[in-house]
Amino acid sequence: MVTASMNLQNVLVLGGGLVLVSWWKPLLLLVTVPPWAIVISKVYDKHAAQFHLPRRKWNLFHMCMGVAAIAAFVLMSVKNDFGFLASWAATLAILAIDLVAYAVVANKDERVPERFHIKLNMEKFAEAREAKRAAKRQAKVTLVIKSADEKGKLSVLVAAPQTDTPEYEVRAAAESLYEKAIEARASQVDIGPTGKDGQYAVSFLVDGVRQAGEAMPAAGALKIMDFWKSAAKLDVADRRRKLVGTVGVEKETTKHSMRVTSIGAQGGMRVTLLLDPDKAVVRKPAELGLLDMQMAELKAIVEEEKGVVLLGAPPDGGRTTTLYTVVGMHDAYTKNVQTVETDPQAALEGIRCNKFEPEKEGAEFSTTVRSVLRRDPDVVGVAELPDANTAKEISKADGERTRTYVAMRADGALQLIQAWVKAVGEPKQAAECLHGALAQKLLRRLCPNCRVGYPPSAEMLKKLGIPEGKVQQLFKKGGQVLIKNKPEICPVCKGIGYQGQTAVAEVYRIGPEERELVAAGNLTALRAQFRKRGQPTIQQAAIRKAIDGITSVEEVMRVTAEGGAPAGSAGAAGPGAGGGTPAAAAAAQPN
Length: 591
What we know:
Helix content is 42%, strand content 23%.
């Protein structure tokens, strides 16, 4: 009776018929037989064919052993649970005997070289298991970092280290630094020595303003710098020369390129991480930030296509962006347009870039510029003016056939012209080729999400040179917004109050009258001549943008009064500002 009761436990009624085993028990047969069949068909059968073993006999033997294993499983498993376990063990044993039998017999056959002997080595299985465990231990990094391949494409994956290695901590710290830069909307990250023994510091450039980051010991900082250098395929051991490379960084759907630059510095090494450098310098003319009348003046300069045009800005003032944009205003498909650069920031469509390599023996920037100009190009953009020889070569070129744009460091148009004349050395020669000058500075845009409007006081309007009653509202930075009637940090600007930058510029065509004044060195008369033309100065353009709510008065004062008198005062213009005309004129200018 007991036996009959236990047997009934293994009887199921399915579709009106009787099944003598539980439905889940045959599933174990699928776990056992298919792996054996794969080894027989993919390994043993090919092995027998390769070494001319009795293949048919072995296949018949394998088939018989397979049938025996299945029969043992079916016949023994219907009795009781003990019988089921015994049947499964018998199945495993029969299949194992089959595998071992072929291996033993085949290995003894003289036709099989020793190196092709079949080895049922459990070490390989152990290695496979360890590999899986190592994969589980693999660092679950949040970033995908790629190096450049031989063609310069960012496609070589930088493998993530394992969590239990020191390299993982370095990778995590490097990624954390990158994440902080993205969170802060930084365009540039700098890591370098502070001057104190054994101390390094991180700083972020956000909308043109430097923000201090955390300090760190030299050992930790150097490991992070070496990681990014290695990812960019730079020589980690070289801590003195200037090295430049690029990496790609991906996270989910976002992708960024990052230029890695390392160079020796006092007290150690400095590494700069520049995010999306190509996107930062490529702009359409309408995105330069010029006022309407300034854009019309620039277009007139570009259409002339003769002589030298100076482009000036302070460091990190958008000089390269303006150079690329203005050079790009010429049709590169009908004109021969070229640039001369030491450190190209982006590939411009249709424009040939002549890269100057200073490390080459006997290389001189002036010689490279002269070589390019002698090929009679239509337009040449010279990205820097490192020495007087370069300026002289440019001034002696045929200005009737070639338009040359020269990018220089300067705070204003008159300062830009002064620097050019000084570099050439001969005022008359420097003046004869001049046809235009554009100088600019960058100021921050107010965050549109949290800017705060306010009525300006009469004192402020007077200081800015704006007639009382002309402007009813100005804006200042906020940094906070109300969320459910509670002040919270603005999610758009992260509490800074500003988001993005725009240029404020002064643009002047230089004709015969202006060239005479430049040759005579009469900057006072030149300033008056520019004033007559009615073109806004940098200061006036900045105030115009404050009136339009694009920026704040505080930002205007910071940018236009750096190193000089406050905006609106008589001495604020100076030679570099392009004139000291009242700011009231700016209020009347169209945007």
